[in-house]
Amino acid sequence: MPAFTFEKISPPARRSPAAPVPKKPRSVISQVIDRIAERRAKRSLQHERALRRDDKPSE
């Protein structure tokens, strides 16, 4: 049996709500990458639709 024990001390309770963290403006590079990715996704979606149309048997 140990001669002593440690108590777990809980952190003090917050009394006021946390202030919202202001969003940093996106960098120009990330904006350009987002635009490229968006255009690429649209292009691949159009390509998939064209392939589906070609795969259907013609009657």
Features:
mainly alpha; 59 residues
Radius of gyration from the CA trace? 29 Å
Distance between the termini: 87 Å
What is the averaged pLDDT score? 80
Q: Count helical runs.
A: 1
- Tell me the helix content: 40-55%
The major sheet is characterized as: none
Strand content: under 5%
- Overall morphology: elongated
Strand tally = 0
Q: Pick out the low-confidence regions.
A: none
- The sequence of SSEs as H and E is H
> Helix/strand-derived class?
mainly alpha
Region (Disordered): 1-27, 39-59
Structural notes for this entry:
The protein has one helix and no strands. The relative contact order is 0.06. 47% of the residues lie in helices and 0% in strands. The longest helix has 28 residues, at 28-55. It has a domain at 28-58. It starts with 27 loop residues before the first helix and ends with a helix. The chain has one helix spanning 28-55. With 59 residues, the chain is mainly α. Residues 1-27, 39-59 are annotated as: Disordered.
